[in-house]
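User: Once you have settled down, look closely at the record that follows, taking as long as you need, and be ready to discuss the fold:
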Amino acid sequence: MSILPGAELGQRIGPMTSIMDMSRLLFAVGCFVFLSATKAAAGDWPDGCVVCENTQSPDEQYGILVPSMDAWEKDESLEETNYLADLKAHQLMGKIRGADYFEHQNHRGLQVTWAPNSTWCIVEYDSRFGFDTISILELKGSGFVQTDIGKQIDKSLKAAIAKQSHDPESSGGDATPHFRIGADRKVRVGTVSTTDPKQLNEKGGYYALFHGTFDLRSKKWLMAEARPLTRNEYDRFGDLFGDLELDETTFATEEDKAKGFDDRMNEVYLAVRLVLPPARFAAVKKEQIEWLKKRDATTSIEEKCKLMEARIKVLQELLW
């Protein structure tokens, strides 16, 4: 029996065709695995996220990623998805617990205060009139350790306001803390709080002062104290934990400048009295009386201004 040429050819090339098909299949699978792995790696950097303004570390290595407004409009749950990221390596270091912010969100805010060496930062999520949560993010390898410090601040302020209002169920007031980071890995915190941030209550609200020191090494508060304030104390206290530099260009005359320095010094002195223990303040009061004698003995207004500017800085340091 003769074998048909076509059949013979089919018998001869069939196995070869299968091998070639298998090679193509293996090649395709290999490409798919490679592409899938690449896609997974790229997926570590979430779509729709942007580096939030003013959150980058001093060395520009790290920053906070938040959803863009466009991404949030497509998926509102994304506002709870914020990340600490290694910007230079283009890698996520982890999700921030308690996050609640997207880019340019109304009546919300995200404030980040970095240590000078870029190894840790304070992350503050704000509502309309004050903070919601405050955490310290400490870099560890390819990730970070998150430690809450806002709860203690809130708890202390609520207790002080409850004492003033005689309402143990008081929800507390609004506060915007100021931070000072030390080389000793300690965070000094200072803030005032009020239940009437818009000052709409004719009788006024309730007011409190908090100051404390958190040790990052031990993850403990070394000191956390709050006390009630009167309305006048709150108003005069102002923003004294913040920048106390005076804009000298606002003074028309040297006399105006001297009065401006004197007013500011009195404000800081009041704050020191509120913050320091009575025995420590008694020593400061004695120093202040002696210093005033020196200032008043100076006839030059310019020299008086220099003395007051230096004294303001000394008193300011006592707040921390």
The CA atoms of residues 118 and 128 lie 29 Å apart. Helices lie at 5-42, 69-74, 150-165, 231-237, 254-275, 278-296, 301-318.
